[in-house]
Design the sequence.
């Protein structure tokens, strides 16, 4: 059974062909490392899976059921969560508010429904604890380090029990220690049976955490193979085009 | 050995003073307080009931709209059309009342006209993606023109059967407080509660902080923006009605360049023109501070020509102060 199955996904932005005929499968609890040069179409692919915009053609199947996402909320409902490359956080809000943005906890107050800050703070703090992050739920994101911001974005995805978590360059802008923590977190997601697609430029991260590696070049998928059967040299060749496909 | 939890717990409790001084409103209150104390000591006219009553009444109108403006600014926008919306609302009210309609009907029509301006602004900004500055500059011109057409550019001072009711509402006072002050208090409390405790309020700040993030999390940003501009137009519409009652007459230059005073009040009160920050309390205090400055210059016998210089200085100092504060952290 496949958790996620992409069939012939293509996407063009006007004249730009960002993706052409990408087919890919991810099993439950599998970590897929998605690699490729800048502009290869990695972000576009995960954004399509996350419902940010529709594919120009092709099909997405989750648990062997065909899906069609019109907006990010549709994807979330289907169990797909994403951490964006630029993290998509509101600097002026607290960590807890960011974690819950768009799906705030509410409580009744007479005839009114009001934001339930205590619950949101408590649950956010709980998530940060699970992530072993020293992020404080009530701190404003503006004053946070890169690693803490990453934790906020990742905590967002854990709010609903997701089936698939997509991460766009989660280790690009954080310290070595935090990279290790993010990779640990990815392993913990996998242990829970969550499938993870991680986009990264960093070879050690991908080889350290991914079960399978997929390589994209100019909008095409040129490889998707078990990490154990590949090597950094081969992947580099695939990324640059020195190796045509594998 | 200290655990992570201890560490987190300890740093969470910043000192009260540090927390207080990090709130922009704190400094506005301090400035207003210092000005009031100085005036009380320097003049024997400031702390009189009559003068305080005047200060209260004069700042109320700017303060009411500054609340609406603060919401717009906090969402990352700007609304230049509020002054013109004031006169449009006032004219719709006056023309209908003069024509024999009841106050209630005329007031609803006036607010509807104001809300229509806000919806128009919001729709062009949210759905057509036009810059707020340009759109509301357009309605600044258009709404006042509409008011002139409606009234044939004549002064109106006769308001039909509910004439006295209107004058009482806008110009009267209860318990020693002018009626518009009650409207202001009600609005300030309601707006504060809404911004703090509802999703709508949370999304105002989210959109102002990072619009793209707000869109990505599935917030209906476009619809929200329309309602934000309708809210600021609503505050202008209310003001149009109250000002008509207070003045007892309306001409088409009512509310002219009021948007500048309103924006100044909002900014002095801590609204960040880059979006994401601003509170109704700050807006009210900003408006109050401007009025206290204006009043003090008059009482101290300083030429009114200097007013603009003082208010301008305050705006720049407020913004510079904010930048300095943010640069440090
Ligand atoms: N919203 C967009 N509008 C137009 N072109 C886009 C858009 N998003 C991505 N592209 C283009 O699609 C291609 C793939 O981009 P992207 O998916 O961001 O690559 P990667 O994440 O692999 O660096 C690039 O040529 C990029 O310029
Ligand atoms: Mg990218």
Sequence:
């Amino acid at each position: 059974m496949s958790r996620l199955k992409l069939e012939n996904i293509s996407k063009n932005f006007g004249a730009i062909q960002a993706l052409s005929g990408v087919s890919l499968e991810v099993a439950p609890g599998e970590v897929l490392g998605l690699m490729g040069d800048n502009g290869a179409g990695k972000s576009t692919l995960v954004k399509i899976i996350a419902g940010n915009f529709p594919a120009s053609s092709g099909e997405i199947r989750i648990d062997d059921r065909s899906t069609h996402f019109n907006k990010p909320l549709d994807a979330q409902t289907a169990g797909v969560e994403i951490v964006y490359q630029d993290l998509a956080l509101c600097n002026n809000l607290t960590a807890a508010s960011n974690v819950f943005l768009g799906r705030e906890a509410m409580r009744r107050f007479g005839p009114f429904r009001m934001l339930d800050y205590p619950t949101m703070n408590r649950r956010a703090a709980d998530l940060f604890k699970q992530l072993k992050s020293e992020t404080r739920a009530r701190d404003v994101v503006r004053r946070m380090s890169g690693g803490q911001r990453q934790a906020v974005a990742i905590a967002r995805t854990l709010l609903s029990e997701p089936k698939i978590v997509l991460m766009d360059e989660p280790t690009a802008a954080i310290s070595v220690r935090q990279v290790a923590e993010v990779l640990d977190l990815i392993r913990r997601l996998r242990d829970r049976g969550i499938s993870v697609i991680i986009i990264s430029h960093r070879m050690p991260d991908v080889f350290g955490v991914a079960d399978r590696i997929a390589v994209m070049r100019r909008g095409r998928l040129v490889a998707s193979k078990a990490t154990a059967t590949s090597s950094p040299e081969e992947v580099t060749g695939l990324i640059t085009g020195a190796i045509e496909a594998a | 050995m200290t655990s992570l939890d201890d560490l987190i717990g300890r740093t969470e409790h910043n000192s009260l003073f540090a927390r207080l001084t990090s709130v922009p409103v704190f400094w506005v209150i301090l400035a207003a307080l210092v000005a009031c104390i100085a005036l009380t000591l320097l003049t024997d006219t400031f702390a009189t009931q009559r003068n305080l009553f005047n200060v209260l009444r004069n700042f109320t109108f700017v303060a009411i709209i500054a609340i609406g403006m603060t919401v717009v600014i906090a969402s990352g926008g700007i609304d230049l059309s509020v002054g013109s919306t004031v006169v449009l609302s006032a004219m719709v009210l006056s023309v209908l009342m003069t024509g024999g309609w009841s106050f209630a009907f005329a007031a609803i029509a006036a607010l509807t006209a104001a809300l229509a301006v806000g919806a128009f602004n919001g729709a062009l900004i949210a759905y057509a993606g036009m810059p707020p500055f340009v759109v509301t500059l357009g309605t600044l011109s258009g709404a006042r023109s509409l008011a002139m057409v409606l009234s044939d550019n004549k002064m109106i001072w006769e308001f039909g059967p509910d004439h006295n009711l209107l004058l009482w509402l806008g110009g009267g006072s209860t318990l020693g407080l002018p009626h518009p002050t009650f409207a202001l208090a009600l609005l300030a409390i309601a707006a504060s509660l809404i911004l703090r405790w509802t999703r709508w309020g949370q999304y105002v700040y989210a959109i102002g902080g990072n619009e793209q993030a707000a869109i990505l999390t599935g917030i209906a940003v476009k619809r929200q923006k329309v309602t934000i501009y309708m809210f600021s137009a609503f505050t202008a519409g209310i003001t149009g009605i109250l000002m008509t009652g207070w003045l007892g007459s309306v001409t088409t230059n009512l509310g002219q360049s009021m948007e500048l005073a309103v924006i100044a009040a909002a900014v002095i009160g801590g609204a960040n023109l880059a979006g994401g920050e601003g509170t109704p309390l700050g807006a009210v205090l900003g408006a109050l501070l401007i009025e206290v400055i204006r009043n003090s210059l008059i009482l101290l016998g300083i030429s009114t020509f200097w007013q603009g210089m003082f208010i301008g200085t305050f705006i720049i100092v407020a913004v510079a102060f904010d930048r300095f504060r943010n640069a440090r952290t």
In short: Residues A 42-43, 85, 168 surround magnesium ion (ligand 2) (CB under 6 Å). Chain B has a mean pLDDT of 87.
